[in-house]
Amino acid sequence: MILALVQAQVWGTGIIAPLAAIGLASLYAFWRIEHRVREPIVDFVLFRNGPYFGASAAAFALVGAYWSVMFFQPQYLQDVRGHSAVLSGLMILPVTVPMIFVSPFSGRLIARFGARRLMTAGMACGAVALLVLTQLDATTPYGLLLAGYLPFGIALGLVYAPMSTAAMAAMPAEKVGIASGVLAMDRVMAGAIALAATGAVFHALLAGGCSFSAAVGGSTWVLVVLCAVGTALTWAFVRDTDRPGPDPAVAGDPPPEQLHHHRHHRRFHL
Questions:
Q1: DSSP string of 184-241?
Q2: Which of 58, 83, 146, 240 has its CA 20 to 30 A from that of 110?
Q3: What letter does residue 245 receive in the DSSP assignment?
Q4: 58-97: buried (b, 16+ CB within 10 Å) or exposed (e) per residue?
Q5: pLDDT digit string (tens) for 183-200?
Q6: Would you call 268 helix, strand, or coil by DSSP?
């Protein structure tokens, strides 16, 4: 499926349509096999757990959007605006730096607001930030870009650690290990799929006569929709405990296995 999206403008419908069909059939076969084997690679039963599904949806939407932003925005800054690679890197730092300052306080924020409200606010912030980035053109001032970059970075900080907390807290102890692995797989898969889909729209817009900057802005609508859906699913499925507490990785005396996985997810695995 990803190959079909990436090569859509190069190979044409005659090759892409069968390739997409093979991809869908392969996904269905994988889903069927994983439901039948005793020890599946991906335990799809995990997604029947509402909070875990909601956290996975947030991870898919926001991390997928992050990959696409970090792929296209530096190219826009260099190829359209003419900035050097070093300056472009400095200009896009507002996307990543907020995580450093927000994430260490995630335990206190979860305790005060609960994972559901915190994650939903972060997802909504990310969707609004991406909406701003749909407006860029060849002369967009950096102030407008910053109005997109900075809220998106704050969204990453607000969502990333609570996402792991909400997902792992919803799992029984014997499922924590596989749930952690599936959540990590979800993030990587999100990046590949979102980047391929955004890239396909970008190239379609270029082929239709749009400029590079207009194609970047137009393709960003894919990410806006993705994060909007992720926001709705986060609010609908993520649940707080009766009394929201701090992140299990930094408070109390959690079991060693659970503590390990919470610490693992608090790192910046984008």
A1: HHHHHHHHHHHHHHHHHHHHHHHHTT--HHHHHHHHHHHHHHHHHHHHHHHHHH----
A2: 146
A3: -
A4: bbbbbbbbbbbbeebbbebbeebbebeeeebeebbebbbe
A5: 888 888 899 999 989 998
A6: coil
Residue (of 160, 50, 22, 150) closest to 91 by Cα position: 150
Mean pLDDT of 85-91: 95
For the record, the structure tokens of 111 come out as 């305790």
- Nearest 5°: the CA angle 241, 165, 132 is 105
- Whether the predicted pLDDT of 243 surpasses 80: no
More confident residue, 8 or 150: 150
The pTM of the full predicted model, rounded to 2 decimals, is 0.81
> How distant, in Å, are the alpha carbons of 80, 120, 145, 220 from that of 151?
23, 14, 10, 15
Q: How far is CA 263 from CA 80, 117, 182, in A?
A: 40, 22, 16
What average pLDDT does range 7-33 have in this prediction?
A: 77
Beta-carbon contacts of residue 70 (< 8 Å; ≥ 6 apart): 92, 95
Element (H, E) at 122: helix 115-133
